[in-house]
Amino acid sequence: MRWWDKCRLGLVMLLLAWMAGAATARTVLELDTTRQPVALSDWGDSWTDPTAQASPQQVAALPDSAWQPTRQHAIYPLTSGQALWLRFTVPPAPDAERWYLEIPYASVDRASLFTQDSAGQWNEQRAGDAVPVADWPVPHRHPLLPIVVSAEEPRRYLLRIDNAHSFSAPLAFVSESFLYRSEQRVSLILGIYFGLAGLAVTLSVLSAASLRDTAYGLYGLSVALMALTQACITGIAGLHLWPGLPWWNDVSPLVLSVLTVAALLWFCSAVVSLPERSRRLTQAVLGMAGLGAVAAVAIMVVAPALRFQIMVPYIAVSVLVGLLVLLWAWRRGDRFGLWLLLGSLPVMLASGFPLARIAGLIPVSFMTMHGMQVGIAFELPVLLVILMLRSQQRREHNRRIQGLDRVDPATGLINGQVFAERMIRMIARSQRLKHQSVVLVIDVINVNAIAREFGRHSAEELPLRVAGRLMSAAREIDSVARLSERRFGMLVEGPLTPEEAAQCAPRVVARGLMPFKNKPIDWVAQLRVAQALVPLDGTDAQVVIEQLGVVLATVPPDSKRAVFLLHE
Questions:
Q1: Angstrom distance (rounded) from CA 496 to CA 501
Q2: Element (DSSP H or E) covering residue 47
Q3: Which residue among 43, 266, 334, 440 is least enclosed by CB atoms within 10 Å?
């Protein structure tokens, strides 16, 4: 064997020896107050009871060969009817601090810590969402199990975990002082989150009531359900809302998650105005939302092992349907569809972490526990801004629709209804202030002549040009209206002297006879004007308008006169 072959073989053997040593090396537990939390790394052992029937005495009597070393991020596959056992020994340590075994997973079904007393009996401490929080050794957001530390002798513990799905919480030891400081930070973060959620719900309810927009109501419902879901996941709900309801504490995260997704799906359809766009898609979305209520009820009545088989497919299909609806709306010109999709992406991505944790694909971590909260914190203001922009657009649309009922679309002038309303107010002011105002009804009488000489398009253009001339002749306080295709009205606000009132109608006629830009010299507007003084000639607006119309109707077609007074 050549020398380099010998060297290579030696390196391989050294590598294998190092790997074997690393595989068998075990760290030593040391409860150090300066380095917390103290994680349960590889100095514990684990064993899975396939029947969940073993007692602490039987577990303690198991041979060492039945146990496997614990690992920091290990994922233990569990189902209903199985139990995970962990054993560890706490070495002698100063007893100046109280220590706790922290299980940072509020949704664990049951965690039982066993310790052996001097008589050889195993004493149990229990926590988890299958146990009323009031019965926990330490009421908290997640299980906290006290550890007795002795300065003289080690203490041996057994920990039993019962859970309907895989378990991967990072077990750690924390002192009382450290726990107090960390809870202050967590409480601040959770307080900000739930405060924002409460503010969003309040604003949405007030907006829904004032604007009569169901989208705001659905937004408030979605946010409230999201906040309740996060309260369940973080343990806030079990600690403060229903501490004496372990069954509901166990099932509520799944039920509320399904209802939240259903509400969000309904909300998305409302934001993109899906009922106005597609009846078939609306029925499909509402059907999926209704199916969410059915799934929520099913989760509450089925066996624990079947709950996730209902929840996960429903959430996955609903998210897919929501994405397709938003993409469909965006492709058809809804500008809010894309923004809603982008705003929902953080929550959609974050929702994958707890699902992957439940499936046993990834261990419990900050992102699996708080990723949804981070995603929702980004989503809430985005969705609220989208709703505000949507409401603004709807208000502008409604104003335009209402404006069409009050404005002539061809000229932009007010119509006859608004003209009559303003005339009523003008007459009332004139009576109160004891002055005279003028009402003019104006007919364009040469439309047919313009059509014969210059064509149909010119005839259609002439009333539009007249509207512009009348607007230029009116003051800011005056009103000009289009009463029919060839008839206009003008309100000239007083006070007016007799001379000023007498000039109103001739001035309008003269404006019509002025040449138009880029038109032949004989392309002019021939106008006939009937004029009334109010309140002198009448105080009923509708009657005065009708009388002026009668005056113009009785004028002979070949009359050269252009101005007519109501009572002359």
A1: 6
A2: strand 45-49
A3: 43
Q: How far is CA 478 from CA 314, 414, 422, 562, in A?
A: 64, 12, 10, 22
How many CB atoms within 10 Å of residue 122? 16
Domain of 558, in residue numbers: 416-565
Side-chain-side CA neighbours of 194 within 13 Å: the count stands at 15
**How many CB atoms within 10 Å of residue 95?**
13
Give, as one character, the DSSP assignment of residue 415: -
Residue 498: partners with Cβ closer than 8 Å, 6 or more residues away: none
Q: Which of 379, 404, 429 is the last residue of a domain?
A: 404
E strand or H helix that includes residue 336: helix 335-358
Please tell me the number of Cα atoms within 13 Å of 216 on its side-chain side: 20
Rounded CA separation 131/147 (Å): 19
**Containing H/E element for 113?**
strand 110-116
Measure the CA–CA gap between 427 and 335, rounded to whole angstroms.
47
Based on the fold, state whether residues 397 and 453 are members of the same structural domain: no
Non-local CB neighbours of 536 within 8 Å, separated by 6+ positions = 436
Amino acid identity for residue 233 in this structure: I
Task: Note the pLDDT of residue 325.
Answer: 86
Residues 429 and 348 placed together within one structural domain of the fold: no
431 assigned to some structural domain: yes
- Residue 557, pLDDT score: 84
* DSSP state, residue 9: H
* Final residue of a structural domain among 376, 404, 432: 404
Considering only CA atoms, which of 275, 300, 305, 303 is closest in space to residue 289? Answer: 275
Residue 538 DSSP symbol: -
Strand ordering across the sheet containing 83-90? 68-69, 45-49, 83-90, 155-162, 110-116, 122-127
Structure tokens of 137?
């050794």
Residue 273 CA: distances (Å) to CA of 264, 334, 384: 14, 9, 16
Question: Which of 36, 116, 101, 99 is closest to 70 using CA atoms?
Answer: 101
Residue 171's pLDDT is: 87
Residue in 105, 196, 114 with CA at minimum distance from that of residue 147: 114
Coil/strand/helix, residue 520: coil
- The pLDDT tens digits of the residues spanning 53-62 come to 999 999 999 9
Task: Write out pLDDT tens, residues 373-430.
Answer: 667 767 777 777 777 777 776 666 566 655 556 788 888 888 888 899 999 999 999 9
